């Protein structure tokens, strides 16, 4: 396994843990549980617990940086990577450590400020977070924006019709 002792996964064996890779793997595992309604076996739960601890530390670090920038008068908002992890937390609905809960609430409060910088995928993830926090008016704004990126035909229904992205799927707008 590429999971390091700190709980994070790396791109390749021997590399430092990657917040991106760890978030992606944990998201996939959470989605399996959410979509199937089945709990994972004990080893998988242990792997997820280690990854969650790693990502909680990363989230708390980002939270502290946001607070520092806010005191300096800079506009603050959570990164899209944080939004992916927050949506995973919203799906698993587990009890959070009080410090992590405080960071989550702070980031949710500043989520709307990130509105124009998010990819469509990030906006969809933001809707999951906003729903869990009861911010229905904000969800409408995010969904309206998402709909602007779609095309509708009677034969295919609604879909994202975007040209080939410049570098990765994240470049699609």
How is the secondary structure organized here?
Layout: H1 19-36, H2 42-71, H3 80-92, H4 98-109, H5 120-132, H6 136-148, E1 150-153, E2 157-160
Antiparallel strand pairs: 1-2
Helix pairs in contact: 1-2, 1-3, 2-4, 3-5, 5-6
Describe this structure in words.
The chain is mainly α. It is 57% helix and 5% strand. It is built from 6 helices and 2 strands, in the order H-H-H-H-H-H-E-E. A two-stranded antiparallel ribbon has the order 1-2. A hairpin with a 3-residue loop joins strand 1 and strand 2 (157-160). Helix 3 (80-92) packs across helix 5 (120-132) and helix 5 packs antiparallel against helix 6 (136-148). The longest helix is centred in the N-terminal third of the chain and has 30 residues, at 42-71. It starts with 18 loop residues before the first helix and ends in a 13-residue tail after the last strand. 25% of the residues are buried. The model has no long low-confidence stretch (mean pLDDT 88).
């Amino acid at each position: 396994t590429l999971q390091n002792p700190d709980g994070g996964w790396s791109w390749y064996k021997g590399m430092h843990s990657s917040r991106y890779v760890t978030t992606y793997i944990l998201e996939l595992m959470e989605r399996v549980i959410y979509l199937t309604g089945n709990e994972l076996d004990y080893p998988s739960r242990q792997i997820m617990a280690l990854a969650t601890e790693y990502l909680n530390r990363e989230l708390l670090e980002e939270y502290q940086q946001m607070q520092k920038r806010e005191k300096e008068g800079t506009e603050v908002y959570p990164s899209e990577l944080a939004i992916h992890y927050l949506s995973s937390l919203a799906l698993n609905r587990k009890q959070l450590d009080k410090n992590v809960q405080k960071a989550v609430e702070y980031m949710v409060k500043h989520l709307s400020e990130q509105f124009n910088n998010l990819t469509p995928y990030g906006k969809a993830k933001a809707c999951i977070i906003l729903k869990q926090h009861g911010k229905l008016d904000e969800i409408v704004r995010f969904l309206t924006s998402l709909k602007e990126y779609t095309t509708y035909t009677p034969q295919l229904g609604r879909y994202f019709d975007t040209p080939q992205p410049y570098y990765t799927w994240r470049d699609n707008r």
